[in-house]
Amino acid sequence: MSSTTTIETISKPNIGVFTNPEHKLWVEETGPKTDDLKAKKGDDLPHGWVTIAIKSTGICGSDVHFWRHGAIGPMIVQDNHILGHESAGVVIATHPSVTHLQSGDRVAIEPGLICNDCEQCLTGRYNGCEKMQFLSTPPVDGLLRRYVNHPARWCHKIGDMSFENGALLEPLSVALAGMERSGVALGDCVLICGAGPIGLITLLCCQAAGACPIVITDVDEGRLQVASKICPRAKTYKVDTSLSPPEAGAAIVKMAGDVKPAVALECTGVESSVANAIYSVKFGGKVFVIGVGRPQMSLPFMQLSTQEIDLQFQYRYSNTWPRAIRLVRDGVIDMGQLVTHRFDLEDAVKAFEAAGDVKSGAIKVQIQSEIDV
Fold first, then answer.
1. How far apart are CA 7 and CA 106, in angstroms?
2. What is the C-alpha radius of gyration for the chain, rounded to an integer number of angstroms?
3. Nearest-10 Cα torsion for 53, 92, 111, 79
4. How far is the C-alpha of 196 from the C-alpha of 209, rounded, in Å?
């Protein structure tokens, strides 16, 4: 474990990881400028803001998608755009109005900026803020930089937690939101569709919550092996794409010892996977879709109807970070095996190539800047 504070000096230019509508990917100098950071030391920051030296940032599937495809639904890359929203680092400057953070504090960054005025914000479901500015979602630049300015209220102290784990708090927050809203309970049979980073972290959460049996599916055998390693009691099912959804659902139930799942946590957003989940759960069960899919898809309506299956969806998270920090700090959730590839910030293009290549064996790729702890 490391110290709860870290002394950071501003010594290198601020650089960021960019993409654009032509699907190019590159690293170049960006703001805030290093000279300004050295000279002003927080006095010119907006009220309630701090400056952070970013140490670790995970590459999300959405980052790869914005790079390669230029859009996710209505969110379209229309200009040069900085990626990244899974970050942790060190506070290096504070506006005089900030009293709960000081230079040297290690923090994880919650990347959504909200209006605090709409119904969703006022009722605590701020992930649905009507004026949300979510960093890395166009046109709002992301966190894949050496230095960033951010509101202090969305910088969560992580104490002596590693920066790697601090950056993993963002995908853990996605999983925790799914756990809470899906209602997974002790002893529930649970199906997890997809063994990517979100699926694997969801698996760790279901294990901690006492779900049993747990079945996790994927098309990739390597990822299923990782699932078995981090949760030995999970049953793994390699998806056979030649099977129809009713056939796949029956195979999943058989894998669970002929117990139909009470809840399916769908982490891929793929139409066929959602259908497989619908055909696997019990009468009155729930299919909870965490994954992001196409704007339009076809679903087995009559199976949902005649089996009284609840189909529910998730968009990001709210009020999850303090809980996520406690779970990692106290060892309830151990994500230490999920970071498979690490790259320096200057080598971010290679990092994205690894994250986007199934053959690389990457689970979670992190980009790091002068990290020593």
1. 10
2. 21
3. -60
4. 20
Average pLDDT, the chain: 95
Given a contact cutoff of 8 angstroms between Cβ atoms, the answer to whether 151 and 49 are in contact is: yes
Take residue 42 and report the two structure tokens written for it.
């927080």
Residue found under tokens 């006095």:
43
Could you read off the pLDDT of 293-307 as tens digits, one per residue? 888 999 999 999 999
Mean pLDDT of 26-54: 91
Are 262 and 214 spatial neighbours (Cβ–Cβ below 8 Å)?
no
Q: Omega before 213 cis (within 30°)?
A: yes
Rounded CA separation 367/352 (Å): 9
Token representation of residue 126: 């701020």
Describe the chain by its helix, strand, coil percentages, rounded to 5.
30, 25, 45
Give the bridge partners for 148, in sequence order: 52
CA distance 237 to 31: 46
Residue 218, classed as helix, strand or coil, is strand
**Is the peptide bond preceding residue 151 cis, with omega within 30 degrees of 0?**
no
